[in-house]
Amino acid sequence: MSKGSLKWVPIMDVVLTKDNQRTIDPKDPDLLEMSATMKQHGVIQPMAGRPHPKKKGKIELRAGARRFHAAQLAGLTEVPIFVRDLDDQAAQEVTAIENLHRQDLTILEQAAEVALLLKKKWPTAEVAAHLGKTEAWVMRRAQISKLDQVWKKEMVKPDAWTAHWSAAHFELIARLPAPTQQIAYKELTDQYGYRGSQETVPLAELDKSLAEMTRELSKAPWDQKDASLLPKAGACTACPKRSSCSPLLFEEMEQEKKAQGDRCLDDGCWNAKQIAVLKKTIQDAKTKHGSKLVISGEIHRRNMGNAVAEWLNGNGWQANHLFESAKKSDRSSFPVLDATTGKVSWKKKYSFGGSSSPKSSRPIDPATGEAKPKTLQQRRKELMDRRHAFVIKHLQEKVLSKQTFVALPVESQSLHVMAGLVSVFGTDGSESYGGGRAAVGQWERVEARSKTGKKAQGETAEMLWGKVRPVLMSRLGFSSLAHLPAHDAEQVAKLIGADWNELLDKAEAEIPEPKSWARLGADGYPKGKKPGKKAPAKKAGKKKAAKKKASKKKK
């Protein structure tokens, strides 16, 4: 590399290098200010360049593109350039180092510069040494340049909901293949978009959300070497969309995730293979058990993708809690296939008027040696539980029937209402509830958020309903309001247009209080009977007494 010399070069003889990844906005206020200064004082800091390798008499500008544009705007005819003889690698180094050490580089510009050096066959270790970074940093930063266009467009919006994200946030996204990035954009926008540009998402929280879009290959319910399951995708073992194929990108993955082993990064492909397996499992089960087979199981984003859950919903899936265990010999029993395990068991429809607990589970009265009867209060509580279970069953059936958005009451077909539901309860991939129990003030937060926000098109609200409906189904996935607060169930009823009081009245009519309870005391014993004493023996009937008397006369 020669020492070089400072030259004043006519602007018409300067050619900008194509290696510069910076985007310069001619309307940028800072650029205009620099141009005004140059018009008054000229160019203070020289630029850097080399004799153009192909265009004789021209100078290829390797550093100082922003100053060059400002000089053009100022109307200058020549600019100072420090010219040196540089080979291609040295020239790339000058441009890259100049740009990468600037403070005003955007994340995308920085990523593009690093990616360009790697594209020009620079060893990762050499790029890392020049920048004073680790090889893992170089790979992760360069990967940002491979972000899908939906994310790149989001990054340049000044009021984007990702406005306060760091480069590390986008590195997590960029690790995923393009199809999964698109899925992530939709789901994360639903999950976090309502927060606006003033809030950010903690890095650990984002990592956790994205982890649900990758799959642990060792848990795949198919042979990873099987290339025939989904011919277009081929075998998992030969697929490049695995975490093990990009070790530097996943170097900082949590230790527990490392222990889990290789992960599939293509959520769409995983879902397609899972559906293929389910189709075969269901067909085999129907061949063996006949057309009465029912498909059930726990389906949500934590154990299968949205596409799989939607496919099951469209192919006869029914909620688990609608059934109870039964013997194969029972007339009312039928085979039920658990979609999550592939196992078939015999069940029957859940009895919402169910019997009380057996005597063996009740305390023993020491005076009589028999099980104590349940108190009247206990009996009535169990009766209410059965009625509540009846109500929840009908509520869940109604939520299931509201698959189309237009089936909801008009007042619920509001983007504000749907956005409020999603922002508080999450979607089927980001449930913000714990075990179905409503957090304090959640419904109040829904009401508050439904009154704010911008006007939006109906299809957006419809999309949000599709996301939040499975969450409401999960909230209702309990057999008693002892686990699900009545207020929570009542609000779901209001949302879908069900008459809560009518449901309660129907439950009371279907499961009435037994008339025999009117003869019981508060302790559960018949009125007039003292605890600890056996009931008096019944008197023999008249016919039995007459026979006994006749027998004595004969003697």
What does this structure look like?
The structure is a single chain. Among the domains are: 105 residues, Alpha-Beta Complex (Conserved hypothetical protein from pyrococcus furiosus pfu- 392566-001, ParB domain), CATH 3.90.1530; 52 residues, no CATH class; 81 residues, no CATH class; 140 residues, no CATH class. The strands form 4 sheets. It has a 5-stranded mixed β-sheet. Strands 8-10-11-9 form a 4-stranded mixed β-sheet, covered by helices on one side. Strands 6-7 form a two-stranded antiparallel sheet. Helix 14 packs parallel to helix 18. The radius of gyration is 36 Å and the shape is elongated. Helices cover 44% and strands 9% of the residues. With 555 residues, it is an alpha/beta fold.
Could you outline the blueprint of secondary structure elements for this entry?
Blueprint: E1 5-10, E2 14-16, H1 29-41, E3 47-51, E4 59-63, H2 65-74, E5 78-83, H3 88-100, H4 107-119, H5 124-131, H6 135-143, H7 149-156, H8 167-174, H9 178-192, H10 203-211, E6 215-216, H11 255-260, E7 263-264, H12 267-289, E8 294-296, H13 306-313, E9 323-325, E10 334-338, E11 344-349, E12 364-365, E13 370-371, H14 376-401, H15 415-425, H16 442-450, H17 458-475, H18 486-496, H19 500-510, H20 542-554
Parallel strand pairs: 2-4, 3-5, 8-10
Antiparallel strand pairs: 1-5, 3-4, 6-7, 9-11, 10-11, 12-13
Helix pairs in contact: 1-2, 3-4, 4-6, 5-6, 8-10, 12-13, 14-18, 14-19, 15-16, 15-17
